[in-house]
Write a structure and sequence with these properties.
166 residues, alpha+beta, Umud Fragment, subunit A, eight-stranded antiparallel sheet, two-stranded antiparallel ribbon, 3 helices, 10 strands, elongated
């Protein structure tokens, strides 16, 4: 009797560990659902929108200018932020605010990206904390899930003029 109970218990624990490992790998390498908060990505992503983030792009270095990414916050590593990639390593980027009369530019260092929110007047981004290490990228947002009337792939940046070609 005891042997039977122990056998079932260990079998259950074995299945739990196996499925836990599969779930971990799925969320770490494939992607997951993310609830976005804050106004920094408006009008593209509103507060409380639900999006799908895939994680394969970061592992294979497929992040491109214009992609919206989930990143560990450089200011608070316990939280994630959602921003658009404006520049990749070696790119020349505008580091000043839209309201600044004199525009300043800089180059993105090796192994880093330049991130900005679509709502430039209400976004804490690379203009505040500088270039972000590529290793902090958690995933790339593919499409919006909620609200249903906005379901689908995300639209282009309203700040396309900030992408500099050099």
């Amino acid at each position: 009797m005891l042997r039977n109970v122990l056998g079932k218990t260990f079998r259950f624990l074995g299945y739990t560990v196996q499925y836990g490992c599969i779930a971990h790998c799925a969320f770490e390498y494939l992607g997951g659902v993310v609830v976005c908060s804050g106004p920094s990505m408006e009008p593209t992503i509103q507060n409380s929108d639900i999006v799908f983030s895939e994680n394969l792009s970061r592992h294979f270095y497929f992040i491109r200018k214009g992609d919206i990414v989930i990143v560990k916050s450089p200011n608070d590593p316990r939280s994630n932020i959602c921003k658009r990639v404006i520049g990749l390593e070696g790119d020349k980027v505008c580091t000043s605010n839209p309201s600044d009369f004199l525009k300043s530019h800089s180059y993105v260092p090796k192994g880093h990206v330049w991130l900005e929110g679509d709502n430039l007047r209400n976004s804490t981004d690379s203009r505040c904390y500088g270039p972000v290490p590529y290793g902090l990228i958690r995933g790339r947002i593919c499409f919006k899930i909620w609200p249903l009337n906005d379901f689908g792939f995300l639209r282009a940046s309203p700040n396309g003029h900030r992408f500099l070609d050099d």
